[in-house]
Amino acid sequence: MWFGIVVLLRLRLEAQPGFPDLDWHCHDVQVRRSSEDPEVEVFPCHKWIRTADGYIELRNEKACLKKKETLDILINHRERDLQHKQQFMRWGTFVEGGPHCVDMTSVTALGPNLSYIRQRPVYNVHYIKSLIERRTSWSSLQELETFFLFNGRENTVAKYVQAHWQEDAFFGYQCLNGCNPLCIRQIHNLPPNLSVTSEMVRPFLPEDSSLGQEMERGHVYLLDYEVLDQLPANTVNDKQTYLAAPLCLLHYSRQGELKPIAIQLQQAPGPQNPVFLPSDAAPDWLLAKMWVRNSDFQVHQLLTHFLRTHLLGEVCCTATLRQLPEIHPLHQLLMPHIRSTLQINIQARVTLLATKGVFDKSIACGLEAIPLLLARGTQRLRYSSMCVPDDVRVRGLDALPICYYAQDALRVWDALHRFVAGWIRLYYCNDEDVQHDCELQNWIGEIFTEGFLGLSHIGAPHSFQTAVEMCKFVTMVIFSCSALHAAVNFSQLDYNIWIPNSPAAMSRPPSQTKGSVSEEDVFSFLPEVNSSCHVLSVLSLLSQPAIDFVPLCHYNEWYFSSGAIVKLVEEVRRELKMLAKDIADRNSQLELPYPYLSPDCIENSVTI
Ligand SMILES: *[C@@H]1O[C@H](CO)[C@@H](O)[C@H](O)[C@H]1NC(C)=O
Ligand SMILES: *[C@@H]1O[C@H](CO)[C@@H](O)[C@H](O)[C@H]1NC(C)=O
Ligand SMILES: *[C@@H]1O[C@H](CO)[C@@H](O)[C@H](O)[C@H]1NC(C)=O
Ligand SMILES: *[C@@H]1O[C@H](CO)[C@@H](O)[C@H](O)[C@H]1NC(C)=O
Ligand SMILES: [Fe+2]
What we know:
By secondary structure, the chain is of the alpha+beta class. 45% of the residues lie in helices and 9% in strands. The chain folds into 2 domains: 1-61, no CATH class; 121-505 and 521-607, Lipoxygenase-1, Domain 5 (Lipoxygenase-1, domain 5), CATH 1.20.245.10. It starts with 7 loop residues before the first strand and ends in a 20-residue tail after the last helix.
């Protein structure tokens, strides 16, 4: 019997009396025209189905754009797919003024199609836990060192941090290659609120030069934590903690080192806001640097890590589910990189970021400050800073041979960009194809309004006119969810185990005069024993490598396994492998290696 071409297949799970009503996972459905016909048509499914779902419909094509559809029934199917998703996936608000997120408060609501199980090895946080009752300050440097011996002695980077944390050159190194390389930027003029004079910093510059000349040459850099200004600091263990909003000036020396040369702890200049200098008494200068590191901890965790990778990934994932049907090629390309953000972010919102979570109990930016900081951080987002080549150029990182983050990020970006460009060419012949793909335009429009809140000053696209624009944006999404997440996540434990290097909270207010602290006093600014340990135990748990780690550009999805896409995937993986080798070679020559952007260490998506 001839029954035409099969284009859509309906499938339904029926409860049978006597059998428990369970979800079933359907891999695919295979159709043969007759029992003799050797040819099998495969309708991939890869989903969990429930009796309650009624019919679900499967197609046998790989991917196609809406305007290439020839049958009405298939156009209808695309539309029904989206209607269904839009009912199920709605936008919600996590904080006013921050990117919108998925309107779900439990992983159960997400259902098995979109959740995953992260297998983790068991990790011993026993020693840290034993201190969780100790509500006292660290009594001495020695006590911190003993604690570190139990905790950090197997971590070679952490040991390096402990040995060098007081050195100015290492402070500068961390701004470039530590866990938050996104803050530092080159400046050609002093910011108006930094009351540094040329005279003040002359001793720290080359003898034959001046601040003005050094700025002109591009040797002066700035860290500005203005985003923290006047934020309400948390109470930890019933005690007030404090936040600063420092400005820190750094100089790139002729010896090839980047060193801080001036630190002002608060934004508004004045007699109670001195500029600390390397020539000040050692405890003053060390404490000023610790304030900068404390500010960096907040910005790293909430803006660099959570906002720039986790929340951005969630915005793109939600928009993808709502606006791109599963048959859309971009849905297929992006999902492996973004799917997991929904679950991990829902979990983060109900644990880490909730009442009695680690931010509430132990970190200076607690539940009062987080919404304000995320809203300010959203206002300060710039599309150029999300796109590596622009970011590296704007911040003048290309001028610093010691910025391994920038070098590696550029190469990962380039490899991904070539991959995405090749992939776009498979589906879009020209810019008109891009302009006329209404699903794609709705997708980027929704990201612009829900993610970037329609703020045009951010500079993110709200539509795509060209394939080039689309390629840049898609590369940015993949980069942020994979490489950037790796750069800011992998490194955090390494740089944070030695507590004075990255205090999560400060127990005393920022100094308003010079000469007011002694060497012993410095440690009294650190958070109490049990709250420091709380932060570390969470970081340690978050830092467990997944057993089912999927490296960058390794795809398990069926649609990556045949056709022209296979060649593209092979190419990008070959390129990434070469890069991993180059990075390994370079690292073997370095005193402190920079491994975080080596492609074999980059996970394909944000899973933790
Ligand atoms: C999985 O996805 C299919 C197709 O979108 C949907 O019909 C089904 O309800 C989902 N399953 C669950 C358990 O959410
Ligand atoms: C800069 O300093 C002025 C006072 O001189 C102050 O009013 C302003 O708020 C400061 N800017 C910021 C961002 O804090
Ligand atoms: C996060 O960092 C830790 C190391 O600190 C690593 O073991 C883990 O795999 C990383 N996760 C991701 C998703 O990169
Ligand atoms: C520290 O210990 C005190 C009691 O010993 C407890 O009330 C407090 O919750 C603990 N803090 C943290 C952050 O675990
Ligand atoms: Fe993360």
